[in-house]
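Self-study notes.
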Amino acid sequence: MSIYVRSMQVEDIDILAEEFGIKQGWHDKTTELFTMYFDEHISSKRYVSVALVGDSIAGYATLLPNDEIGAFANRSIPVVCDFNVLKKFQRQGVGSALMDEIEKTAKQMSNEICLAVGLYKDYGTAQRMYVKRGYVPDGSGVWHNGRNLQPYEACVNDDDLVLWMSKTL
């Protein structure tokens, strides 16, 4: 299986929305979202890498040069902001290929990279991959909706409940 990673192209917008939003059922992955990603990619506000297996899009990852929320806010540390591999291509090296490219891009901006990973079971593969790649928790604890939670504070175990991690490049 041949994996190729390249920059996002305008033709990817509808394919990404179809594959992730409709076929995979992730309703927040819309044409509007990917149009915004592409526009930000063109203006260098966000870097978007797309992985292909053969001629098929298998996944994508986005990198912001500086995050405005979270544990690394306004520290000029690039942040992996949205990273997904289609279920049918998971555990085949696609995620690693995307992260290789994202880390290479981040290295041009900083000697550090960060990300937030979800805490429920569906994020288990990502959690393990990040640790294997050398990411470590930043020590700030659990965050929800861009805010650091206090001890015993109630929260919902959803996509916005995250642990921040970083890696020296």
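Second protein, same conventions, sequence then structure:
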Amino acid sequence: MDEGLRRRLAAMAEAELTQHEVYRALAARERDASNRAALERIAADERRHAEFLAGQVDRPVRARRLTVWRYRLLARVCGLTFAIRLMERGEGDAQDAYAAMAADVPEAASIAADEARHEAELVGMLDEERLRYVGSVVLGLSDALVELTGALAGLTLALRQGRLIAAIGLITGVAAAMSMAASEYLSTRAEPDGAKRPGRSAAYTGGAYFVTVAILIAPFLLVGEPLAALGLTVAAALAIILSFTYYVSVAQELPFWRRFGEMAALSLGVAAASFGIGYAVRVIFAVDV
């Protein structure tokens, strides 16, 4: 066995042992018995793979503790589905690598088959509540981004006072959050399948809207110059869009750039139009605050 193949096998053994530790940790905090059993089976397979690969190169391997900690934190903050989907992206590359080395290590084909089976098993078990309500979050998030970013842009040119802009934005945002929550409640209640709870849908929509409002108006309270605050608000809006689009693209295996481009274009387009409207209002009505 040449040294290059030995190094690749050692790296794969380390990755498999790391995944074993991740799946074992995720299984320990999983409440659903069937999901926990599936995660424990996958963890056992990953350990068996690691032991076999380490035996091929006759050297000890260690799990990457920082990687294990990172996925445990992701599962706690972003949910089990997001953490597993993100990790499985790497396993897709590993399947190709195992298939490529099957001629030199025949058992690699069996490991590749195990990895494919893991992916199918995980797809069948993943059903988190937060993903069932992702449409409600998108509704609150996108509406707040488009509506409030535009409103703040218009108010910046019309009023030019940071705290006044923040106060008006907060009043508008809170009222809109409650309105959106109420609309989502009634809309969900009218759905015939009853797959989602109306109160929970309303909470996700209103909560997403309100959190977005708080982030967008914060620069106007912290920065004295309104135009600089508006620049920070636009940057915050783009960061929110980027983060949430990435989360959804990983958790639901959807294309990232197209969805990010759509939301960014809508928010920035409305902000630019509102900025112009604010300037026109200031000139036409001779507003001088």
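Instructor comment on the second fold: The mean pLDDT is 82.
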